[in-house]
């Protein structure tokens, strides 16, 4: 029998949800998987609803219910359960932040890292990034959660323990629920721990910063960059006063990084871009972080389009969004828009007709009129039946 | 009469000449590259996704089971019609629909061979990363169904990392798109679920795959060892050094001798093991990395090493690796591939256990494997006409998979579960895990007609 836990003292999760239009009756903050299991088992028995929350950096990626009985504050489940440098993997509890993980890894041996860099990584938890399919510019080289995750542990809608995947890079034993649950926003089960790939810190890192006066030449440059042999870890493009600022990160052998800096700047120059290269991992990380984040608790949406449509979509959004911050992960066709309102969202939907517009952090009032976010056939014959089967009493939030 | 009615319906959809029903024709579709056997009532050759949807819709209404089949190279019985029904044959849906360089995507039909896609992309300076050894014969749809890997998956990931979208015919015959050219379709990763589901949750009829620019330079080196454990140690040491090669492949002496007799790749016959190492990427810094790798190989006791001088020599070295399964098939009438995976550092222990199992069950076992991924492929050689030997082979295979599970690995790295590893699922999953998988299957295919009997054990299955 679980000793009844008091709601967290500062009530922060409740206030966060309230600010997004969600009324939560109480918060619970499990520190162990067994506690989480008991909370959910009780919720199942008593027909209560549970919404899990990490750093709330992309809390609107799923379906935000109007009311919820229990908000499960996952930040209590924090820590490194296992680190295996020889096999390049680690198991972390779901409430551990990405910055916490990377600080730990950087201090091990010659240094390691986990290449997931969504915005607000100081607050974003591994469970939250998993639930919302969060990503950052480094997905250009390293991919996203689906490329880094090896296995998950969790709790099903009845409070039972489940686990999928494992610790090996290759694994086709049974259905790949490790991948399927990515982006499910806690609607099918609660994730309590994740086993991730990790990488040795590269011998050299650099950041190239280049300014282009106009989108036309920049678009040609990005196309040339994509078809070149250069391998940037991530490229961001953001409109700045009367110009476009491009950041490109390079990592690897020092000779390769040196060559990439040189070729990148030279190629940019061909298309009218001017800038410089700086060496160092910290310089690179800080600049990229600043480029993809916005100050304050602002709204955020994510737009994805085919790669080649990224620059034009960014231009269109810039006109729509005015002073709102927009940034493109070039080479991935991902654009973040901060400070989005209903007008910007509608415009984004028109611009991204070949892709998707997804909320990351929005008030419920903006989510309600959104309309279907997945294909109706997929919703009717795949997602809804799965939801009804795995969570028949609706403990977790509705599936998209 | 009933059979004729079904045949007529199939013929109306795909044409009279595209339905097989005679015993002699059906025999060809009664097996794949594994050991399982089955018997379909019909084989229907499809030409487009509308035909697939019409067939599935018809079979769904009639309560008849079906299995989609590409080239039948599956190694675990996944494409065997184990419940009779209809084989939906995809070899004629083999077109490249679009090579979209601008968006780094290729759109293909599922029946096309992996290598055909690779060759078309190579002409444009691009490639598709998953490269199963069977790529000459295995289809892209089959690769999707099995989540196929291949040597280059060490650095670039497996099929599920590269298939971004698919047109899918669901088990009730409805057609839909999952994912596409743009990334991050909202909601759960349904594409990630579909890849590796062995055709039990739907049938892909078009695939959108990521393509990548061919690397500026490739270096391939063959290292010779007097012990397979030493070769395994080198694999761990290279990766611990922070170098992630494109491939790290090991073959043992039995396989080396078979390959030399068949492919003549230039592997030394007296070597206990060879390690094939490939680096790719930018030219700058690559020589330095290969030099460091050579030092590691020497430290671990490599007898010698040989760097491929050019593309031709590299192709010859790879012909040996890619032809290994075929070469081994010359030694005995049949073989069973155990596709277990272990954490990389447990490879030496796993190999030593495989050797003991070979002795215990008196069956020769060759080893050829993706060492960088810890993905073993012990090949148990036997004569399938010898019932006693066949029984020992099955026992040896199960024991190898148990070793992999006990060492912290899993029972399949890239060949799937099919019908052949259903019992072993309990080695790596608890009841609750399997219940959740079964729930998904029942939700998507409530009538259980879509490739029945594969991947998920029935509820009454007894754990081994």
Number-wise, the strands of chain B total 18
Q: Which word captures the global form of chain B? A: globular
Largest sheet of chain B: 7 strands, antiparallel
Number of E strands of chain A: 18
What is the residue-averaged pLDDT of chain A? 95
Tell the overall outline of chain A. Answer: globular
The percent of residues in helical segments of chain A reads 25-40%
Please list the strands of the largest sheet of chain B in the order they lie side by side.
15-12-14-13-17-18-16
Q: Which assembly state applies to the chains in this document?
A: heterodimer
Roughly how many Å is the radius of gyration of chain A? 21 Å
Termini Cα gap of chain A: 34 Å
Discrete helix count of chain B: 16
Largest interface, chains and sizes: A-B, 91 and 91 residues
CATH class of one domain in chain B: Alpha Beta
Care to describe what's here?
The complex is a heterodimer of chains A (400) and B (464). Chain A has 400 residues and is an alpha+beta fold. Chain A has 4 domains: 64 residues, Uridine Diphospho-n-acetylenolpyruvylglucosamine Reductase, domain 2, CATH 3.30.43.10; 125 residues, Uridine Diphospho-n-acetylenolpyruvylglucosamine Reductase, domain 3, CATH 3.30.465; 88 residues, Alpha-Beta Plaits, CATH 3.30.70; 62 residues, Alpha-Beta Plaits (2-Layer Sandwich). Chain A has 14 helices and 18 strands. In chain A, helix 8 runs antiparallel to helix 9 and helix 11 runs antiparallel to helix 12. In chain A, 58% of the residues are buried. The N terminus of chain A is likely disordered. With 464 residues, chain B is an alpha+beta fold. In chain B, a hairpin with a 7-residue loop joins strand 17 and strand 18. The relative contact order of chain B is 0.12. At the A-B interface, strand 8, helix 7, strand 10, helix 9 and helix 14 of A face strand 9, helix 7, helix 8, helix 10 and helix 16 of B.
